[in-house]
Amino acid sequence: MVQSNKNLWILTEERPKKAVIEKIIEKTSLIKNLNIKIEKFKIEPLIEKNKFLHAFKISKVRSDKIQNIFIRLISSRSSFVDFLVFLQEKEPKPEQILKNCVYAIEETKTNSYDSRNTAMGQRSSKFNTLNYYIQKYKAETKPIMFFSHEQAEEDHKSVNFINRSLYHLECGIEFWGKKSSKFKKFETLEEFIKLKNEIADTNTRKNDTPIKIKKENDVIKISSLLANPNKTNKNYTGRIGHDPNMGQIPLIAKVIRSLGWTKKILITNHQVLQNKIGTNKFVNLANYINFELDGCNLPKSNFNFDYWEYEKDKEKVATILAQVILENNDLITIFDNHGGCEKSYFYDISNNELKIDKKFSADGGKIPDLVIRDDKNKIIHQFEGKKFDSVDKGLEEIKHFDLFENRFLKKYYPEYKYKRSLIINGGKKKNIDKIEFQLDKNYNLIFRDKINFFF
Length: 455
Known about the structure:
Blueprint lengths: L6 E6 L5 H14 L5 E2 L4 E6 L2 E8 L2 E2 L6 E7 L7 E6 L12 E8 L3 H4 L2 H19 L5 E6 L9 H10 L7 E3 L12 H13 L10 E4 L3 E5 L19 H16 L5 E5 L12 H9 L2 E2 L15 E2 L4 H14 L3 E5 L9 E2 L5 E2 L4 H4 L7 E5 L4 E9 L3 H7 L4 H11 L4 E9 L9 E5 L5 E3 L8
Parallel strand pairs: 1-6, 8-9, 9-10, 12-13, 13-14, 20-21, 21-22
Antiparallel strand pairs: 1-7, 2-5, 3-4, 4-6, 6-15, 7-8, 11-12, 16-19, 17-18, 19-20, 22-23
């Protein structure tokens, strides 16, 4: 018998994958002593009279501490993690920020040997930003870096350096899926600078600019490229846009501050032009931590008041809903790339993971947002997600799936037929054969029954 009126709320920007949601529930149940048991785990969309209520529910939850587990899609204008986990009775409201939030989770499938320090460097700004909100609102939220896929036994030194640096955030951090017993804070500023420069000296990659730190009398200089592409590239703009360094530099500056340095921190060799500087997450962190760009004045800026908000309008709301419904009806996802979400692997018939390289798009390939396998009818459905006002663009884009079909579907699924369709969010019903699924402006579900869109 349930003795509490509380619910568990999992808010996410990502497609709610079963294995990831199970892990989050397991960890939350353990730390909060919720004693959660789930029979035949299933993520079910909440639909009432054919209207989507913009929430999902975990089926058959048993616990004497909570009633239900709900999932809702959210988004943010800030540098934002993938999941927020709240424990309370009523649906969380954006204005409560992180009150009652147990975990703030960043999840990645990336193995650091695939991306070296790129992935962790990019994610640094998410935890640095989260630290700001936790400190400001005195939240008891625990930040989590969740590696949902198997990791290498030993990471690159550059990745370990970032992981250790994250421990210097006041909010702390916990790692799931990675042995972190060897991670510890740096004891002195000298140790920190020495290790970073040693790592930089081992960098042999062409066209790369290793980050180096130099301590002078009253200033610490950090040499780092921030413009992307750099001056040698014909497409150089002078804007701040080097994703890994945009994350790493504020984190490095934060560690320097935490180790007691109160004087100037100056970023040099950044290649950023003064007239190309606007307000963004990097500038927010520069003001918060107090570091400067050599030769440039950064505008004063503040973090957004609202860390997160509920999402109803983006195309991924419809594509994620469609995916959940189809998977619940025994169709199998072999690839998904919902707008703003992490791109998945491509899965062959034996469930082996195949990475779709970035070069694929450079070769002119168009990747579907969602690829679903129907084993019963031997059909693979390729879906492009679009908002209602971009239907015509979507109809044009699905004409360009040829390279994807040739390189992946025909190679790994030669016995299947291939179909191309649209999934639409918003607007009114359009009688276009290529629209397979639509969530209209009133959130009613409109679908063709030929591919198991029932619930």
